[in-house]
Design goal:
The chain is an alpha/beta fold. It is built from eight helices and seven strands. It has a seven-stranded mixed beta sheet, with helices on both faces. β3, α4 and β4 form a beta-alpha-beta unit.
Length: 254
């Protein structure tokens, strides 16, 4: 029986990549046109949100989003969240309606088809290169000046399978303070259980999201990066603990 389970997990992974490709192929001409000018990015963003919903629904995921505060239209924000799954990208696009640009690792640009648009619409970073990390700030500043928002997974990578939440890097919070834009902490509760980076795992089910109250950066200086960073991490970590406790209580009741 275990052997068949492994086969099903592999097929589930293959199905995911098929779902990633289908909308890109169908929308390819429109996606291509939307990236010809930077000012047309909001149109690309709308199609990216449709792409994300198509994938999540096709995988059997159903999202449930709780919001303590809602972003205002036309205002820039720094969106951050815990990072445990490839589906974090899709769920972030579903959660946030305000057009934003991802800051992500350059390795994803190698994925066929997806990578073509990824490297032309996202801010790519080589975490081993100091020059690349500095370049990220310039590109992010440029996009913020255009009225867009930015999304960064501040753990700086994917956390270990047995880790709840890694430490946060400074980058997202430095940008937020420099531009005096609110930080929006977001907690993804179930992405690791639904579709982690372990190939032999995953299943359809609920994806809970909690959009926390925004953290104001007006008047803050770079000396307060550490305080802002730790406050953001504590908010997400505490929510993860709450979700875990809810799951434990449900299990006991059953």
């Amino acid at each position: 029986m275990a052997f068949y389970k492994y086969i099903l997990w592999i097929l589930y992974r293959v199905w995911f990549y098929i779902l990633v490709a289908i909308p890109i192929l169908l929308l390819f001409p429109f996606l291509l046109i939307s990236i010809l000018k930077e000012s047309w990015y909001p149109y690309f963003f709308k199609m990216a949100r449709l792409w994300s919903k198509f994938i999540l629904i096709g995988m059997g995921f159903r999202w449930k989003i709780e919001r303590e505060e809602v972003p205002q239209s036309g205002k820039s924000y720094m969106f951050i969240a815990n990072h445990t799954s490839m589906t974090d990208i899709m769920l972030m696009l579903v959660t946030v309606k305000n057009p934003f640009v991802f800051v992500g690792k350059k390795e994803l640009a190698k994925i066929p088809l997806f990578g073509f648009f990824y490297k032309r619409t996202c801010i790519l970073v080589d975490r081993d290169s100091l020059r690349s990390r500095h370049g990220v700030f310039k590109q992010a500043e440029h996009r913020l000046q255009q009225g867009l928002s930015v999304c960064i997974f501040p753990e700086g990578g994917v956390s270990e399978e047995d880790s709840l939440l890694d430490g946060f890097k400074d980058g997202a919070f430095r940008l937020a303070i420099n531009h005096q834009i609110p930080v929006v902490p977001i907690t993804f509760a179930d992405n690791k259980a639904r579709f982690s980076f372990d190939i032999f795992s995953g299943s359809p089910g609920q994806m809970r999201v909690w959009v926390h109250k925004f953290l104001n950066t007006e008047g803050l200086t770079l000396k307060e990066i550490k305080v802002l960073k730790e406050e953001s991490r504590d908010i997400i970590l505490n929510q993860l603990y709450e979700f875990q406790n809810e799951k434990s209580l449900t299990t006991v009741v059953r």
